[in-house]
Amino acid sequence: MNNFAYQQVGKAKDATAILREDKQAAFIAGGTTLLDLMKTNIEQHSQLVDINLLPFKGIEQTSDGLRIGALERMSDVGENRLVLEQYPAISESLLLAASPQLRNMASIGGNLLQRTRCGYFRDVAFPCNKREPGSGCPAQKGDNRNLAILGVSDSCIANSNPGDLAVALVALDAVLTLENAKGKQRRVPLTNFYLLPGNTPHKETVLEPGELIVAVTVPTAAHARRSMYLKVRERTSYAYALASAAVGLDVQGGQIRSARVALGGVGAQPWRSLEAEKILTGAPATEATFRAAAAAALQGAQPREHNGYKVELAKNTLVRALFDLTAKV
Amino acid sequence: MTNDSFTDQPGAAPDDGSRRSFMKQAGGILGLALTPPFVSQAERLTALSRKVQGVSEMRLKVNGTVRVINAEPRVTLLDALREYLDLTGSKKGCDLGQCGACTVLVDGRRINSCLTLAVMNQGREITTIEGLAKGDDLHPMQAAFVKHDGFQCGYCTPGQILSGVACVNEGHATSDAQTREWMSGNLCRCGAYPNIVAAVREVQQKGGGKA
Amino acid sequence: MNEPNFFESPGAGGSVGQPLDRVDGHDKVTGKARYSAEFPLPGLTYGVLRTSEIAKGKITSIDTTAATKEPGVIAVLTHLNLPKLAQTPNTPEGKKAIGAPMGFLPLTSDEIHYAGQPVALIVADTFERATHAASLVRVQYQAAQPIASFLDAKAEIFDPLKVQDGKTPGHTRRGDPQAALAASAVKLKATYNHAINHHNPMEPGATTAHWEAADRLTVYESTQGVTRTQTALSQMLGLPREQVRVVTKYIGGGFGCKGSCWPHTPLTVQAAKAVGRPVKLVLTRPQMFTSMGHREDQTQTLTLGATKEGKLTALIHEKTSTTSPWDNYAEPNSRIINLLYECPNFEAKYELARANVMTSTFTRAPGEAPGSFAIECLMDDLAYQLGIDPIQLRLLNYAEKDPSTGKPWSSKSLKQCYARGAELFGWSKRNPKNGLTRDGRHLVGLGMATASYPVHNSQGTARVRLYADGHAVVQSGATDLGTGTYTVMTQVAADSLGLPVDKIRFELGDTRLPTAPNSGGSVAAGTVSSSIYMAAQDVWQKLTKLAIQDKRSPLFRAKPEDVINEKGRLVLRKDKAKGEDFAVLMKRIELTDIEGTGNGKYGAGYESGMAASPADSGHKDDTAGHSMHSFGAHFCEVRVDPELGTVRVSRWVSVHAAGRILNAKTARSQIIGGSIFGIGNALMEATHRDDTFARYTNATLADYHIPVNADIPEMTVEFIEEHDPYINAMGVKGIGEISMVGVAAAVANAVFHATGKRVRDLPITPDKILSAGVAS
């Protein structure tokens, strides 16, 4: 790591002010993403602004729904009673992620900003359009076993946010509260927060320079109460998803009244599937419906040489999640 | 508490005095603000609102003792322990949060010390493997690891043991299946997993044992 | 045969074999155990490697200006300014003299041969400064198109005549396998593909080099063999052996990758020379993938001929694998295929291709691990095809003597292993048809496989110093990889001297101690224990001589051959009441202590009575009158999720026969550990090398998966007791490797039983289960 300066701040405006003046500065909360990227020379920062004392805390039910402060730790949110009971997909996505130690460290805001595990991105010796725009994407014809099949481009096929939480949150219509250097807050639905790679894979989110994530809000809904997160990985724990599904259903009398579907491990970004939801909504909760929904979700898949299996895997994962969720009642 | 603060031998501290920190040059504000024995959360807020650059004095409370090092902000907690304080029980297996060998307890919670900065951990209670036993009496988890042969080479062991202590205290060791999942953040290449589960099971059944 | 020196089990109260807690356990659970990067030397500096971005080409320029300007940076060493070595492995003679695993040392020229090759070594006063300065070195290359593997269209496949540094012939043939195959009623042929595997011990490679004088060096090294490292360094430095001291008190696993002296070690030593201060260099985890070897990418095709009753008539094995630009390394897969079953006709052939990779090296059960995968999967196929129970098929082809040499086995208890394993596992309840056992969503499968590993030729020495006050210091320059060397040697010394274990201090891991072999090839336990036992006998012989010359001794004028020792007492063989305690004798004659030395021979060296040297000359294994092997059987239950492609091991039983077991607790741990290593190999371990860049794409522990706790069920391990007087004085065969042999096949066979689909490409990841069409 380069020899950065460090300071801890107590107010959001102090934090954002530093980043406004110093374009190379970065915020640090848990550090699990940032220090990893700095140690591997993917990122260099002139100074780190420790935001852990900012008041972005709390896990509470508000009139808008569940509100989680961006500085809450993954473990605390994952085991929070309210989250467990009313938003199980969120809890499960957190507790199936990383390791207990990392979950104790990593903040919710930082989790949403983690970056791809694509091996070409992670090793600065390789060209990578995400790291160095215009340098190329060897993953297209290289080792793409665990890269994305949905929303990809010729510039980049990375699953840009490889985490689990974002998948559950995009499924459940989460909205981020952001605060910029002028102290102004704005609300951005998580589905709009992430950008598809297109020709600019280095632009991953709509976050402005110096802007902070303050909180995540998830609307209360029947499909949130009855939701789950299913994760498929090469080993039983402590691994990124090959494919995952966050699903929420409101089923009444065998009919699906509302549905929420998002896929992980297969999209260039956490992949909300409105196509699948459309098929599920109003349909009977049957295998045929689930399979049709899965087919719709993967309709636009663009697999490369080594990740074609993900089409079937993602479909099966989604079908399984829907099955398990309907069987849960 | 006022007597437990002392300056450690520099050990791996940087050679050059030339690039002493911004803080030192600015008149030792940090030193003033961090007046022993230790700072409260509110005090730390003011104190650390100053920018730290280059080599500066840091105070880390490790195993109940405040220890002082001179180090750059980029020094991780793990390297501070191993290279600056000669507490080599915490191990570096990957330095990227991917193996758990560096697990320590900070304010009672298990974390990977390789992915946090030493400077960020001032004012916190840091427990390493060296601080787990009470004198000659092994912590029940340490004793259980010996009894059940919960290791071979021993390199992942300090992290496993601290993780095991936390696992029991968190209430995540109520069944073998749960223990396996909640101990999965600590890789063991020698493959001692069934023995580790046996050790954690025993401590859990005997009523835990706080760190 | 040295029958008189065979260790007899002590009576009640004896320590050997008991499940003693590790004697180093306390130090390991309290953090007191110091590994090689944990010696705080005065003036210590930090070395960090900068490695090559490209896999092939030339360095055209190195700009070290920015790196040198960084505060705290002491030196930036490149091929242009690193102090020259007296000898390098860059010539065949140099490689041989050094005992180097690779015929190339980086930083000796501007040539780049593999991605991750060191191009500079930066020394600074702190780790952080050295690490950052390494990133500031600007290296310009003239890059050439590399070859990534034997599968590369540009790769030239060649016949190496010999592999594994000449230890294994490239061609082996018994009988007339082609004719026998043509005449066989049943023919099976299958190809098995193996991903690159990396050892990934939890402790990365680490060297702390300290020049105590201009010509005197101490190196704290993470190595499986201090003597081999000493040999390598003394050759490279042109220093007498005794001026190079290598110390390894604790080592955080090795699994083969720390069995040789790899480039980072002499580079660190030279850096310390250059800066005039001790230098510590620890490889980063990504650097571990390109610094200490790997298990090579390989494909093997096995062809089998059999009678319609299932008797093998012919086995033909072909292996093609990737090697480095300089060395002809391939693990000897055919060795186990040649001897596991009775088969009159056999042929094996190795092919290699040079690629821009570093040399691969021995990885736990080198050869036997992948070789057993091929033969044990194909035997399983044969069993299904003929409708014979897999264990019955193996018994039908049971080799009563070694088919590869025709020699009798020194001991073989494989039938007992099958029987006991089957009983513990409940094999008889298995549905003989595959694909039919379900449990909820999961397909359940049961599989088994045979394990075998040779007793390699080896020798070592030990020293025992027995004190009149009733304690002893026992020394041998061995290493304890976590296998329990500290503990089991303490037990052997205790019983050999008739002392309680707490009166023994066993020291290892230092070239100042008597020479022991590398801990590798499963030789350490047998060789070192036998050395200690022999050293104790030396002490007893010396004490006997003193006793029979001492008028005051009850043994005065007895014949030496009539005197034996029993639990610390020298007594007459025929009248055990007549004798005296060693302490009584020593105190009376005013002897504070007495020292004995012993030379333990292992394998053929012991049986033929020849000095076996060098210590690991594996190619001499067949010089004795017996074929010496351990045997065992693994039983595995898997649960396969056919839609999600996941395979999880849910039950495990291993039964092994490996001669004398020195400590029931550590031995069980070792078998469990080897089985888990094999489960990783079977289900998840693969390093991916990009075809274009010849560079790894997943060189981290997040992306190269080794098993985690949640992957592993409770495991059952048992041993069949064996008394083998041929292999060494202690009758120990060693269990480090056999624990992994056959594991991948047992898992794959269980997957086949569960799904009816045979996956022959390792690892068996979800994509392969899905593409096998299991769900349909």
TrEMBL record, chain A:
Per UniProt, which keywords does this protein have?
A: FAD, Flavoprotein
The answer to whether UniProt assigns keyword Flavoprotein to this entry is yes
Gene Ontology MF annotations: FAD binding; oxidoreductase activity
Q: Cite the FAD-binding PCMH-type domain residue spans from the record.
A: 1-223
Q: What is this protein called?
A: Molybdopterin dehydrogenase FAD-binding
- The source's superkingdom equals Bacteria
> Which Gene3D superfamilies does UniProt cross-reference here?
3.30.465.10, CO dehydrogenase flavoprotein, C-terminal domain, Uridine Diphospho-n-acetylenolpyruvylglucosamine Reductase, domain 2
Which Pfam families does this UniProt record tie to the protein?
CO_deh_flav_C, FAD_binding_5
From TrEMBL, chain B:
Keyword line = 2Fe-2S, Iron, Iron-sulfur, Metal-binding, Oxidoreductase
Record GO terms (molecular function): 2 iron, 2 sulfur cluster binding; metal ion binding; oxidoreductase activity, acting on the aldehyde or oxo group of donors
Q: Which SUPFAM superfamilies does the protein's record reference? A: 2Fe-2S ferredoxin-like, CO dehydrogenase ISP C-domain like
Per the record's keyword annotation, is Metal-binding included, yes or no?
A: yes
Question: Which residue ranges does the record assign to the 2Fe-2S ferredoxin-type domain?
Answer: 56-132
Q: Where is this region: Disordered?
A: 1-20
What PROSITE patterns does this protein map onto? Answer: 2FE2S_FER_1, 2FE2S_FER_2, TAT
- The question of whether DNA-binding is a record keyword is answered with no
Question: Could you tell me which CDD domains the record lists for this protein?
Answer: fer2
Q: Which domain of life is it from?
A: Bacteria
Q: What is this protein called?
A: [2Fe-2S]-binding domain protein
Q: Record the organism.
A: Hymenobacter roseosalivarius DSM 11622
UniProtKB/TrEMBL annotation, chain C:
> Which Gene3D superfamilies does this one have?
Aldehyde oxidase/xanthine dehydrogenase, a/b hammerhead (3.90.1170.50), Aldehyde oxidase/xanthine dehydrogenase, molybdopterin binding domain (3.30.365.10)
Q: Tell me, what is one Gene Ontology molecular-function annotation carried by this entry?
A: oxidoreductase activity
List the coiled-coil residues: none
Its domain of life reads: Bacteria
**A Pfam family that the UniProt record links to this protein:** Ald_Xan_dh_C
What positions does the domain Aldehyde oxidase/xanthine dehydrogenase a/b hammerhead occupy?
30-145
Name the segments for region: Disordered: 1-25
Q: Name the PANTHER family for this protein.
A: DEHYDROGENASE (PTHR11908:SF153), XANTHINE DEHYDROGENASE (PTHR11908)
Descriptive protein name: Xanthine dehydrogenase, molybdenum binding subunit apoprotein
Q: Which organism is it from?
A: Hymenobacter roseosalivarius DSM 11622
- What does UniProt list as this organism's lineage? Bacteria, Pseudomonadati, Bacteroidota, Cytophagia, Cytophagales
